[in-house]
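Thread: Newbie trying to understand structure tokens

Hi all, I'm a second-year student working on a class project, and my supervisor (Dr. K.) asked me to get a predicted structure for one chain before our next meeting. I've only ever worked with sequences, so writing a 3D structure as a token string is new to me. If someone could post the tokens and maybe explain what I'm looking at, I'd be very grateful. Here's the chain:
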Amino acid sequence: MNAPQTAARKLDLDDLAALEEQRTHLLQSLDDLDAELAAGDIDIDDYQALRDDYTARAAMVIRAIESKEARLSAAEGSSSWGRTALWVVGLGVLAVVAGIFVAQASGTRGVGEVGSGEIRLSVREQLFQASAANAQGDFARASELYTSVLEEQPSNTEALTFRGWISWQQGDVAAAEADLAAAVEVAPDDPAPRVFRSVIELREGRPASAADELRVWAANDPTAEQRQLVNGFRLREQIADALIQIALDEGSSPVPAFDFLADMQDALPGDPEAQAYRAWLQAQLPELLPDSRVLLDQILAALPNHPSSLVYRAHVLWQLDDLEGARADLAAYEAAGVPDPYLEDILDQTGLRTALN
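---
Reply by user tm_fold:
Sure, no problem. This is what the structure looks like when written as tokens:
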């Protein structure tokens, strides 16, 4: 590695460290917010608004970390960007989601209260410790704690779900699938194990099964944090992309992909990511470019800085020969300073950035 490369790598590592500090701060802010609510220092409306804001900001930082990690891995000759990116996003958002699960498990009891004896308190304490271990990156310890919980409560859905997720990230697919299957058997309508099963099914090359799992997830009132997890993974888009690719490879109809997207929109109406992705698919057909632009205009009128819509509309305007408008949208996306790996891939694959520069 020559001197300029070494300097560039140092800058990347410095940026990564700063982003990781931001992630830690935002995740701590989420924990502090829960404590303020429990203490009665904040009302529920302000709590929800701040929680949504912190969660969205944390997800953006996590995506930026993902992008930095991916570039560093590529520079070092890594051949597994997809798995690395998934690992980075998953670990960051997992800490957020784990905190929500623990808060829900604790219920509305006050500090120091016990629901049903010392064993119940012991289980709760272990779940808190597992959540903290997750947040600190000590996944072996977290897994041990979840196992300890399951020795006392074999049907504890939270422990099954997160031990399974950790197992998969560490490469033990069989253990992960067994734990998550058990979680679904105990609580078939719980959205959390469904979303993790969807990720695994997709990564193991079974997009149709991934789509089925995400349909169940969407139909069972997922939390805002879980929706952020799905958006952070671009899970809906990746499943649809995989289904479309299968159709292209087999020369079959892409209807399953569009049915899946329609089901997701019906279950989660008003989701801007779902609407933007629908517009992006429309934009692949020249005759639907005007319709795609109308839909993206509507989204950006309500959310002027929505990253996906800015990139998608930049592409649409480029295809419609509105280069000035396309450059303005691309500049607005880049001005946010938080590159999205999925959108960056689109910019690279379409040659959009090169064409506009």
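A couple of things are worth pointing out once you decode it. The chain has three domains: 1-79, 80-187, 270-356. The CA atoms of residues 78 and 299 lie 37 Å apart. Feel free to ask follow-ups in this thread.
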